[in-house]
Amino acid sequence: MEGKQCIGILTSGGDAPGMNAAIRAVTRTAIYNGFEVRGIMRGYKGLITDEIIPFQTENVSNIIQQGGTILKTARSEEFRTAEGRKTAYENILKHGITALVVIGGDGSLTGARIFATEYNFPIVGLPGTIDNDLFGTDTTIGYDTALNTIVQSVDKIRDTATSHERIFFIEVMGREAGFLALNGAIASGAEAAIIPEIATEVDQLGEFIQHGFRKSKNSSIVLVAESELTGGAMGLAERVKNEFPQYDVRVTILGHIQRGGSPTATDRILASRMGEAAIYALLEDQRNVMIGIQNDELVYIPFSKAIKNQKPIKHELLNTLKTLSI
Ligand code: F6P
Fold first, then answer.
1. Burial class (CB in 10 A: 0-12, 13-18, 19+), 65
2. Does the domain made of 146-259 have the CATH classification 3.40.50.10420?
3. pLDDT mean across residues, the chain
4. Is the pTM of this model over 0.85?
């Protein structure tokens, strides 16, 4: 990159704890390197509606500990159209923005890829999503906090499950990915996880329930990933109620509680490292890449790879869960 640079930052898609830490890191690293910064409000929507404001170091003071995103976020339908992207590009030129840092999940990075290709514009992405479903990175900003929220919630529900001798189906987020459900189940000592990646688990549920209850257990907790493939917690609970009317079944859908709250130290550090790396990536003339982390090393993953490939779950974790829930 040569000459005076002006970095636009936006957050897009579902908010994730740690996004603010990332905004702070991008802003401060850019200013440290003599760049100007513009905060773009409401994701791609704000690019189109021209909600773009100058950012100084003070704009990102006192936010590292806050959940959500100070830049707000949105899912923009207009940015999916060529006309919407044209208006966005005109606003970028108007504000003298020379590169973009986009913080978001799958959909947000897909938008970034299309725009970057269409206008030959430098964009670096940061994986900001609780779902942990981006290929090429061991983890994403917000995932650790959401996992901890799930574990704290399940710990509480367990008190009721044990006292009333009930089976609880607890639905967690993940948008068709089982990372939160599987690792949440291991961390909370749940009996099983029903995830979209292993659809057969649904059929084994009956066997599992008979099995679990035949042993010493008088209560069970099953984490279910939201997905049509799993049928969700409601669907599964209905099946079990019909097939095993002798059991007392309850459902809890954790919902957006999983997206909120102060980020964990792990997410703050991840976001800070990735935010800093985004600016150094641009300085190295990297474009159309997502910053990922592999074995604690920061890496560049081309958007095409991060978006197109499905991130695999670790199948051995299912065995771990099975073994430990006897
Ligand atoms: O991508 C993050 C996520 O929380 C998914 O896990 C979930 O499916 C989706 O967003 C919910 O989106 P919304 O907040 O728009 O309902």
1. exposed
2. no
3. 94
4. yes
